[in-house]
Structure formats: structure tokens, C-alpha cells
């Protein structure tokens, strides 16, 4: 059966009257063996946060005979932080770290949460001789002439999330910069103006002149690799929190492995050092991945490595700075929200606001934006009823779709006196971050996980139990500034039954972006690219075909100029394709397309779900002016255009229409960034500033915009069948229009949908009415 499906796919896929061939891509035979899943063997999870500091005891300290005194080098930087830094478990092991990196290309460093990995390791390494900038001679690849260039001097520390990269940069800037040595504006802009430390995340870069340590998101470093495949400005790359195993970190590891195994001619012979860090990492598989001399590709071997042996060492650092006491519920909780509220208020009433270590705030882990916003409402309502002798509560949300400014608010101390901060976060706050003041963690034990089904081209986003590794990371957030407590809203048996680690993202999501990134980095044979856990062959096959349909790949599988442009946009490839089409004279609707994409990528739906019938009627009266019969996309467009034309009270305007105020603000923020990027890419002139008068979009213009969207979403279309169901044009699956869509319950000739989710049913979301003929036009690569 599987074989038959593969043959059909290899022959081609029919879209309208076209059959697209895959033969250009599929030169390698799939190698199906048992090695594709992450093995749990050799996983090193540091002991659950129980013990206090355990002086320098590692499984791997061979060859280090220096005295204890020598190992405690004097700190460099701001004396205000010396004591705190010297108290970290990592402090006494800094010479071991230096020595191991002096002798090896790669160091895998495992240490408990809060032991000082993210903040201290880069500060230990910048003083090393191999970490200094050097002038070298290299041959130019285009004309063979010899040039003198500078190589090294900087360390990049990658983080899975923007908030971790920026908060760590701020912290390390404070620790590493010597007060008074900065520029004059250092006071105004904080320690990041003083040099030494910087950060680079999507839409936000602060890299002062003289930066030596740069905190970056994994995605940003991948972008840098597109411009500089040898990462020449860096002496070392520190890959932090590898256990999260995002697609980006897997790609990054593959590229780093290639640089390590290469001949270093592009770096003038100067090696690149790599440190892999985590509290809960599968050390065995990481060591094997980097040290294997034949680069194991997805389904075959890559060309032999020039540098046949990458030396990899391992160091485990035990001990944590402060203990964390963990409590499980005696019985499973029937209602998580109720359990959350009662735990939060119990802590609030029983625990003091301060102790000798400082504030005693709370961090609670919930599944997503919707759950956070509803919990916030309930906590605030209940807090109003507290007697006057109980301290007040300030609730701060923290999730990925919030603007960076809103995210950073959760890291500030509360301004009001006699008030406890309660931060409600998704797993965005799970690793790497220190939320100042937090001493209590409440863990609901679940997270929303994306799961992709390549056969159906469908994604589901469901709340699932977290892994043990996540539970350990979450508890670790409580013991960073003093002894902490973690309340798990699940039983000990449930904890014991959790998987050790999460399935790597590459095995459960669409690999479209990953394949495009490889192609853009010059990886012609993506099947031979080294990955720790290769995804299913079928997923790669689908991604290649999809990229071909998007015009990102030519018939021979090479990347096109459109593909190269697509990787420049920080949005998924289909959206990038729509942006590029919108800038062409044929469609000429870039401003409208940016408006729509901004609404869609701003978080959960901008329209709040209304439960009560009475409020529904009221909101629907207001929403009538927004609804468009062309469907959700033109409705989004009308909404954001009316919102940006609103001059008086935008918050009131949103409340009347039951729109999510935060998401509207975030949409405006993304709109500004995307406009800026398109101006930079010379795709449009600087647009006029808001507010602009509102003119409703004509049906003809709406048709142009929807046709433009089909350039990215031709595969996400369905035709109305004689039995009144919608059947997808690609794959022939039945889909239902989601109840949240303005087209729910309506019959149209054909529909385009931007999302396809499986909950109780196979649902199409973000739906628009289209004509069947438009689908065929959209896949015509000549137009
Ligand atoms: N932004 C911050 N504000 C206050 N203290 C901080 C901050 N960042 C780090 N610290 C302090 O430095 C300590 C070490 O933090 P660091 O992030 O280096 O640990 P880590 O070993 O990388 O932890 P994890 O594995 O959880 O990422 C923390 O426990 C905390 O005491």
C-alpha cells in the first residue's frame, strides 16, 4: 500500500489539468531503517531540582590536575554581580570548560536549570586565545584572488525563543560590561549600548559596535548562514536548549556539522568551536551526530567529509543554586482551571510577598493564549473580592504572539506596592528564561502541540501532556533567585508516565520551510543533508512538490529567484509567495495583502469567540459592517482598514465588535514590520502614514486579492460536490467550513482556506469564496 502511494507521488500529482512530475528531485532511494526516531538511550536529565549545590563533580574531569584555587578565576565585568556569579554551580568548572574546548571541536555541556550555562559560558570563553579576531588570507570563490579578511572574535548563543534571547542579552550585558566604560547614551538605552553584548531576533536587532557575545534566535542564525555560509565573524557557536529540538535547531546542527567537517579554507584555516547545552539532553545521540565521520544524510550518505574526525567531548555539571520543592496533586484534577485558581490563591494567601532572597511572585504554565486570557479574567474578578488585608494581584500574560514590549512587561517588577505578580505563560517561558521575582511555579502539565499529517496535508493543534524534560524545565524556573516551590496540577504517577522528551518538531510538522532553507543555502540534494532525526520521506517529497508549485523550485529542483526572495520573509513560505505575487503589476495589491497577513499572523483569531446569545446579537450588529460575502480574508482586510482609520478610541472600537485588542495591536505591529521589509526589498514605495480614510474594497478588487492569495494556497482549495460537501482539489478529502468562518453554512462554487485543522472534524479555516477556474490559473507557472 505504502509502495503504491509512493509510486503515485513519484509519477506526479494532478492539479487542475496539470500533472507535476517529481522525478527531478527524487534521485535517492529512501533508506528506511530503525534509526529515524530519537532514541532515549543515553539521555541525561539532571536530577529533578532537589539538591542544593554539589561542588564540582563531573563524570568527565580526566586530565585536570590544577588546584581548586586555579579553577576559580576572578570574574571580569561589573563587580555588582561578582558574588552572584561566583555562587553559580558552573563557576568552579570554568577551567574544565575552557580546557575541553581547547582540546576539542565540540563540547556537549549538561547542567541543571539555573546552574549558569546561558549567562556564564560565553563570558568564560571570550577571553580565550582561540576566541580572538584574526586577520587571515582566503581565496575568493568567484575569481580566485587572495583577500585578507578578519575571522572570529564573536560568540553566538542561540535560543529557541525571542524573549529568551533578549532577556539573556540584557542580563549578560549588565554582568559583563564594566560600569562607566560605555558610550554616553548607555544610560538612556541601558547596558546594551555599552558594547560586548548584543542580540538579534526577528524584527529587532541590537548589536553595538564591539559586540563579542550575541544572543540570537535559531532562525536568525539560519538567516546569517544564508549570507555567510562559514559564519566567519564567529569563533564559537553555543547552541543552547538543544532539547527543544525545533526544526531550526536541527537544521542549524546540520549546517554546523558541515562547517566542522569542511576544510575551513573559507575561514582561512581558523576552526569554529561548537558548544551544545541543555539541562535535559540526549547526550549519546548528540555526540554520535557530531562525531560520525560519514555524514549520514536523510536517506543516504553525503559526500565524504574533508575533515574526517570532529572531536566531541562531554561535561556534566551537577548541582543547582537553589532547591525547588515539588508537589504533585494526590488525585487527578477534574477541572484544570479550577485547580489552577485554587492553587494560585492558596499560595497568595499563605505565602509572604518577600523573604531575604527578594520577591516571591508566581509563574503559571498554561496551554495557550485563549486559556491564558480566560484565566486572567477569572483571577482578576476573584482578586476584587479579596479582603483588604490580603495583598493585591497583578496578572501578566506571556505568550509568543504578544508584542516584544508586552512580553517584556512580565519581566518587570510590579510597580504597585503590596502586590504579587502572577505571570501566566505558555511554554515560551519554559526554558532559558529567568522571570525576575518568581519563586513559585504552577504547572498544568499540558502544552499545545502542532502535529502535521503529510498524507492529508493537514495540521492539528491539540493540548497534549508535556514530557518529563518540559516538567523539569518548568520547575527549574522557581529556583533561580532563591529556594522555590513547584506545584504540579497532576499526580506523581502521571509524571512518571510522561515521555522522557518531546518528539523533535521536524518529525511532527510540515518541513516546507526547512527544505526551502536548505535549498537557499545551496543544498541541492536535500536528501543527503545531515539531520539528527530525518523526517518521513513522504514529508520531504511533499515539501519539494509544494515548493515547485509555489515557484520556489525550478523543474530541475534548483532554487529560483522567487524561492530566494521567499526565504527573506519571516513568514511561512506560502505567505511569502503571496507577498511576492502581490508586488507584481498583475496583482498590484501589496498593501492589502500585508494587512490580511498581519491579521492572520497576529495570534489566535482577531475575532473573539462569543459564548452568550445576548452578547452575540449585540456584537453581530456591530460586526455587520466588517463582514464580507467574499469570506474571511476580505473581512480581515475590512476590519484592519477600519481599525487603522479609527481616530478616536480604538480600544472601545474593538470592545464593541468583540475583537481581541491585543491581537489588533500586534497586527498593526506586524503590518509596520512587513511594510518596512517590503520597502527595503524595493517591492514598494514608503506607504502613507495612518490614519487613512476608509474606502470599502470593490468586488473586482477583492477578486484580484483572492487570486493573488491562490499563488500561495492553490493546494488549499475545495470544490462543492453534488452532495453539497466540499472536496479538496488536492487529495480529495471532505472538509467542512469551520463555525468561526463568515462562510460557515454557505454554499459556494469553490473555496480557498489558509488553514486546515483536525479537531473533532476535518475543518477548513480562514475561508474565502473563489471560482474553480482560478485554481488552474494559479498553478500556471508562466503567469
Ligand atoms: N534576567 C535575569 N534576571 C535576574 N537574574 C538572572 C537573569 N538571568 C539569569 N539570572 C540569574 O543567573 C542564574 C543562571 O542563569 P542561566 O540562564 O545562566 O542558567 P542556565 O543554567 O542557563 O539555566 P537554564 O537551563 O534554565 O536555561 C539564574 O538562576 C539567575 O539567578
From TrEMBL:
InterPro entries: DEAD-box_helicase_OB_fold, DEAD/DEAH_box_helicase_dom, DNA/RNA_helicase_DEAH_CS, HA2_WH, Helicase-assoc_dom, Helicase_ATP-bd, Helicase_C-like, P-loop_NTPase. Its EC number is 3.6.4.13. Residues 29-81 are annotated as: Disordered. Keywords: ATP-binding, Helicase, Hydrolase, Nucleotide-binding. It holds the Pfam family DEAD. It comes from the Eukaryota. It catalyses: ATP + H2O = ADP + phosphate + H(+). GO terms for molecular function: ATP binding; double-stranded RNA binding; hydrolase activity; RNA helicase activity. Gene3D superfamilies: 1.20.120.1080, P-loop containing nucleotide triphosphate hydrolases. One of its GO terms (biological process) is positive regulation of transcription by RNA polymerase I. Residues 339-522 form the Helicase C-terminal domain. Residues 98-299 form the Helicase ATP-binding domain. It is an enzyme of class 3 (hydrolase). GO terms for cellular component: nucleolus; ribonucleoprotein complex. Residues 34-64 have a biased composition (Polar residues). This is RNA helicase.
Amino acid at each position: 500500500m505504502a509502495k503504491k502511494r509512493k509510486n503515485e507521488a513519484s509519477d506526479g500529482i494532478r492539479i487542475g489539468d496539470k500533472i507535476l512530475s517529481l522525478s527531478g528531485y527524487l534521485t535517492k532511494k529512501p533508506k528506511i531503517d530503525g534509526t529515524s526516531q530519537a532514541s532515549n538511550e543515553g539521555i541525561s536529565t539532571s536530577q529533578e531540582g532537589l539538591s542544593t549545590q554539589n561542588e564540582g563533580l563531573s563524570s568527565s574531569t580526566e586530565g585536570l590536575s590544577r588546584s581548586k584555587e586555579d579553577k576559580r578565576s576572578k570574574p571580569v565585568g561589573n563587580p555588582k554581580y561578582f558574588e552572584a556569579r561566583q555562587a553559580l554551580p558552573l563557576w568552579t568548572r570554568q577551567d574544565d570548560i575552557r580546557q575541553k574546548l581547547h582540546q576539542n571541536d565540540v563540547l556537549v555541556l549538561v547542567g541543571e536549570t539555573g546552574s549558569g550555562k546561558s549567562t556564564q559560558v560565553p563570558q568564560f570563553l571570550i577571553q580565550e586565545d582561540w576566541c580572538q579576531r584574526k586577520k587571515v588570507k582566503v581565496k575568493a570563490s568567484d575569481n580566485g584572488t587572495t583577500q585578507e579578511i578578519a575571522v572570529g572574535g564573536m560568540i553566538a548563543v542561540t535560543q529557541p525563543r525571542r524573549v529568551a534571547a533578549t532577556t539573556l542579552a540584557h542580563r549578560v550585558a549588565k554582568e559583563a560590561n564594566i560600569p562607566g566604560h560605555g558610550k554616553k547614551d548607555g544610560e538612556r538605552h541601558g547596558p546594551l549600548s555599552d558594547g560586548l553584548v548584543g542580540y538579534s531576533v526577528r524584527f529587532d536587532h541590537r548589536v553595538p559596535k564591539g559586540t563579542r557575545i550575541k544572543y540570537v534566535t535559531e532562525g536568525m542564525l539560519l538567516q546569517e548562514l544564508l549570507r555567510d555560509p562559514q559564519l566567519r565573524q564567529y569563533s564559537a557557536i553555543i547552541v543552547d536548549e538543544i532539547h527543544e529540538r525545533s526544526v531550526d535547531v536541527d537544521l542549524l546542527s546540520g549546517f554546523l556539522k558541515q562547517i566542522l567537517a569542511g576544510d575551513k579554507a573559507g575561514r582561512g584555516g581558523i576552526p569554529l568551536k561548537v558548544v551544545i547545552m541543555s539541562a535535559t539532553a540526549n547526550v549519546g545521540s548528540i555526540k554520535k551526530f557530531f562525531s560520525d565521520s560519514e555524514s549520514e544524510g536523510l536517506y543516504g550518505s553525503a559526500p565524504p567529509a574533508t575533515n574526517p574526525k570532529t572531536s566531541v567531548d562531554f561535561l556534566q555539571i551537577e548541582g543547582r543554586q537553589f532547591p525547588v520543592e515539588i508537589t504533585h496533586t494526590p488525585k487527578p484534577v477534574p477541572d484544570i482551571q479550577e485547580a489552577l485558581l485554587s492553587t494560585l490563591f492558596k499560595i497568595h494567601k499563605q505565602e509572604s510577598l518577600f523573604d531575604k532572597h527578594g520577591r516571591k511572585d508566581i509563574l503559571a504554565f498554561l496551554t495557550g493564549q485563549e486559556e491564558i486570557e480566560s484565566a486572567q479574567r477569572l483571577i482578576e474578578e476573584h482578586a476584587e473580592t479579596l479582603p483588604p488585608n490580603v495583598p493585591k494581584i497583578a496578572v501578566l500574560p506571556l505568550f509568543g504572539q504578544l508584542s516584544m514590549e508586552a512580553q517584556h512587561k512580565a519581566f518587570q517588577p510590579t510597580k504597585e506596592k503590596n502586590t504579587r505578580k502572577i505571570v501566566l505563560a505558555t511554554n515560551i517561558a519554559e526554558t532559558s528564561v529567568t522571570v525576575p521575582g518568581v519563586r513559585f511555579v504552577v504547572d498544568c502539565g499540558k502544552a499545545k502541540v502542532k502535529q502535521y499529517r503529510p498524507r492529508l496535508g493537514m495540521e492539528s493543534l491539540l493540548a497534549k501532556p508535556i514530557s518529563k524534560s518540559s516538567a523539569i524545565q518548568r520547575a527549574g524556573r522557581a529556583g533561580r533567585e532563591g529556594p522555590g516551590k513547584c506545584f504540579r496540577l497532576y499526580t506523581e504517577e502521571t509524571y512518571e508516565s510522561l515521555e522522557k522528551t518531546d518528539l523533535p518538531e521536524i518529525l511532527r510538522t510540515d518541513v516546507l520551510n526547512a527544505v526551502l532553507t536548505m535549498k537557499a543555502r545551496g543544498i541541492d540534494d536535500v536528501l543527503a543533508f545531515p539531520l539528527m532525526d530525518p523526517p518521513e520521506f513522504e514529508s520531504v517529497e511533499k515539501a519539494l512538490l509544494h515548493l515547485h508549485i509555489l515557484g520556489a523550485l525550478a523543474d530541475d529542483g534548483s532554487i529560483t529567484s522567487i524561492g530566494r526572495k521567499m526565504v527573506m520573509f519571516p513568514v511561512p513560505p506560502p505567505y511569502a509567495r503571496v507577498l511576492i505575487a502581490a508586488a507584481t503589476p498583475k496583482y498590484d495589491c501589496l498593501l492589502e495583502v500585508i494587512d490580511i497577513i498581519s491579521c492572520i499572523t497576529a495570534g489566535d483569531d482577531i475575532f473573539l469567540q462569543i459564548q452568550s446569545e445576548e452578547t452575540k446579537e449585540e456584537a453581530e450588529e456591530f460586526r455587520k459592517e466588517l463582514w464580507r460575502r467574499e469570506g474571511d480574508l476580505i473581512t480581515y482586510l475590512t476590519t484592519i482598514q477600519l481599525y487603522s482609520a479609527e481616530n478616536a478610541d480604538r480600544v472601545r472600537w474593538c470592545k464593541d465588535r468583540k475583537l481581541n485588542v491585543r491581537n489588533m495591536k500586534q497586527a498593526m505591529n506586524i503590518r509596520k514590520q512587513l511594510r518596512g521589509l517590503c520597502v527595503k526589498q524595493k517591492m514598494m514605495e514608503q506607504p502613507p502614514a495612518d490614519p487613512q480614510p476608509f474606502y470599502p474594497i470593490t468586488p473586482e478588487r477583492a477578486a484580484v486579492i483572492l487570486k493573488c492569495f491562490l499563488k500561495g494556497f492553490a493546494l488549499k482549495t475545495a470544490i462543492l460536490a453534488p452532495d453539497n460537501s466540499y472536496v479538496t482539489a488536492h487529495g480529495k478529502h471532505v472538509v467542512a467550513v469551520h463555525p468561526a468562518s463568515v462562510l460557515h453554512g454557505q454554499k459556494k462554487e469553490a473555496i480557498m482556506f489558509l488553514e486546515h485543522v483536525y479537531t473533532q472534524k476535518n475543518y477548513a479555516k480562514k475561508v474565502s469564496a473563489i471560482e474553480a477556474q482560478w485554481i488552474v490559473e494559479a498553478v500556471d507557472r508562466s503567469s
